């Protein structure tokens, strides 16, 4: 009976998804103006927003894959946001009861029902624990995990249909969905987030001027993450800091991210302004460890090697690393043409004044080359690049003169040694 009910629920969800897709994409196909792909790109954000959290998160991550998707589509998907209204108090209370039992057994003296943050997967509330500590309590939305899992299954079944759409026939849709969908589901796993937070804290324990909230394992449950409440947090805006204070803060951010990427191999890929803050002491505060990716050692070294050779203008070695780390190299791949094109790109970037280097301008050009030559990156290689792209704009707005590449070189030389730099 349960299996039948589950199948029936999956069928209803599939019908709902089909109805929403037909309404948005069908309208785009029959409308006029622009290319078919442009019209589909324009319709995608509203469609994914209506379909819910799983598709919103997938769309956000797909917006970073400019090595595979058009700039137009990535720009449109980049407008998606998962800031949504909080669930009713009764729904939050039901989750807390599921986690701890009756209200008299909850570990809170006080609990603020009005959340300080509300996303598509969870809400975050300020609370006072029974031992007197003030905590941030992340409460997963009721029913979100089975919904996202069923959406993952249905999306997988539909991924193959991209072969029927002109311009998307060569897209490795199944592989992309497997990589990105798994990353999305992990963000709903609060036990995994607690483990990631503990590992990041251990890795960065000796990093001065950097703070992460301490998770309280004894109070956390599968659907609830309880952690230290960090208050008096400030956005990364230039005022009221001096130029020297801004430069010091940005160096701490960059050195922390580079340490994750090139030394520890555990990378926070979601350091947007809501998750990366400053406190009253000027310390860098990292929040929300839901999207943390472990890098296999091979990928970590590949990415570090690419970044170091890019900094030194060694385009041939950069091209070789892209090929070595690719998820797929097509038959008949024009290796010489690709290497020459990457050499030219890296050579042009090497001429840019250090403080004016812009990864957000460099990466799309590299991705276009990958699309042209039919080579696409493994997700493990794309996610570290995502972490840098997310923070670059914020860093340049806070401290326009920061040497984005130069700050990485000492760390890379210590970690990888001079052998990777082919002079």
TrEMBL record:
Keywords: Ubiquinone. Residues 110-423 form the Protein kinase domain. This is Ubiquinone biosynthesis protein. PANTHER family: AARF DOMAIN CONTAINING KINASE 2 (PTHR45890:SF1), AARF DOMAIN CONTAINING KINASE 2 (PREDICTED) (PTHR45890). It comes from Kitasatospora paracochleata. Coiled coil: none annotated. The keyword Repeat does not apply. The keyword Mitochondrion does not apply.
């Amino acid at each position: 009976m349960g299996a039948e009910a589950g199948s029936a629920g999956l069928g209803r969800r599939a019908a709902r998804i089909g109805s929403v897709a037909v309404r948005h994409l069908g309208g785009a196909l029959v409308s006029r103006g622009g290319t078919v792909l442009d019209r589909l790109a324009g319709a995608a954000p509203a469609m994914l927003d209506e379909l819910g959290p799983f598709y919103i998160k997938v769309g956000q991550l797909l917006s970073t894959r400019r090595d595979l998707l058009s700039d137009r589509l990535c720009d449109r998907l980049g407008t998606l946001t998962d800031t949504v209204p909080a669930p009713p108090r009764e729904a939050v209370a039901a989750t807390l009861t599921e986690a701890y039992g009756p209200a008299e057994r909850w570990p809170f003296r006080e609990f603020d029902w009005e959340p300080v943050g509300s996303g598509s997967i969870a809400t975050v509330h300020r609370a006072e624990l029974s031992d007197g500590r003030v905590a941030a309590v992340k409460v997963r939305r009721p029913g979100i995990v089975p919904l996202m899992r069923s959406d993952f299954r249905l999306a997988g079944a539909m991924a193959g249909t991209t072969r029927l759409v002109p311009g998307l026939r060569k897209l490795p849709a199944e592989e992309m969905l497997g990589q990105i969908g798994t990353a999305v589901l992990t963000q709903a796993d609060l036990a995994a987030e607690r483990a990631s937070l503990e590992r990041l804290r251990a890795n960065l324990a000796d990093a001065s001027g950097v703070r992460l909230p301490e998770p309280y394992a004894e109070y956390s449950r599968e659907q609830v993450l309880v952690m230290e409440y960090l208050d008096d947090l400030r956005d990364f805006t230039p005022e009221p800091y001096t130029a020297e204070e801004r430069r010091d803060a940005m160096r701490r951010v960059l050195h922390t991210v580079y340490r994750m990427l090139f030394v520890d191999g555990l990378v926070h890929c979601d350091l947007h302004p809501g998750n990366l803050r400053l406190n009253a002491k000027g310390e860098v505060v990292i929040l929300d460890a839901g999207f943390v990716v472990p890098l296999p050692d091979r990928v970590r070294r590949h990415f570090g090697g690419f970044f170091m050779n890019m900094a030194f203008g060694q385009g041939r070695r950069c091209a070789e690393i892209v090929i070595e780390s690719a998820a797929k190299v097509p038959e008949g791949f024009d290796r010489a043409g690709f290497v020459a094109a990457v050499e030219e790109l890296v050579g042009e970037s090497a001429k840019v004044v250090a403080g004016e280097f812009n990864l957000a301008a460099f990466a799309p050009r590299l991705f276009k080359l990958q699309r042209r030559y039919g080579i696409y990156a493994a997700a493990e290689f794309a996610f570290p690049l995502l972490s840098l792209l997310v923070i670059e704009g914020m860093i340049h707005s806070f401290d326009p003169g920061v040497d984005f590449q130069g700050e990485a070189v000492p760390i890379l030389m210590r970690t990888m040694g001079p052998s990777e730099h082919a002079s």
